[in-house]
Amino acid sequence: LQVITGGHYDVDCRLEDPDGVVLYKEMKKQYDSFTFTASRNGTYKFCFSNEFSTFTHKTVYFDFQVGEDPPLFPSENRVTALTQMESACVSIHEALKSVIDYQTHFRLREAQGRSRAEDLNTRVAYWSIGEAIILLVVSIGQVFLLKSFFSDKRTTTTRVGS
């Protein structure tokens, strides 16, 4: 589980077995991992909740693995140990699975960073537009104020009894 975008990057998560027994429950988590062995067959339910932050949309990445990977070289009908080439293939296969996990992790971090950068870019653009409007209003106000200082106000005087 990893929250990629939205709010404070946290969600509630719950996992239930087919009988409705809660196996896992965490509140306001940004990133977490949970491993368990299923005790029985059936439909397991997991739920992500965002009820404490209803106005913020969130993007959540989750990944689950069911069962063990089949062996690269089945041990059925084998009398001898693995050859050096087969052992090297098994270790390379394990290393590649680790690389896939790292790539997934870094892709998620990149997506999270991109989301933050785009949000910051939007905020900076709105702030710049606001500042430009304020600057325009103030400059027009100053022009009219200075114009009023230098304008001639003609006053009419009347003389009485000359």
TrEMBL record:
Membrane topology: Single-pass type I membrane protein
Keywords: Endoplasmic reticulum, Membrane, Signal, Transmembrane, Transmembrane helix
GO cellular component: endoplasmic reticulum membrane; endoplasmic reticulum-Golgi intermediate compartment membrane; Golgi apparatus
Transmembrane portions of the chain: 124-146
Compartments reported by the entry: Endoplasmic reticulum membrane; Endoplasmic reticulum-Golgi intermediate compartment membrane; Golgi apparatus, cis-Golgi network membrane; Membrane
Pfam families from the UniProt entry: EMP24_GP25L (PF01105)
Domain GOLD: 1-66
UniProt cross-references to SMART domains, sorted A to Z: EMP24_GP25L
Principal location class: endoplasmic reticulum
The organism's place on the tree of life at top rank: Eukaryota
PROSITE patterns: GOLD (PS50866)
Record family assignment: Belongs to the EMP24/GP25L family.
Name of the protein in its database record: TMED7 protein
Species annotation: Lanius ludovicianus
Gene that encodes it: Tmed7_0
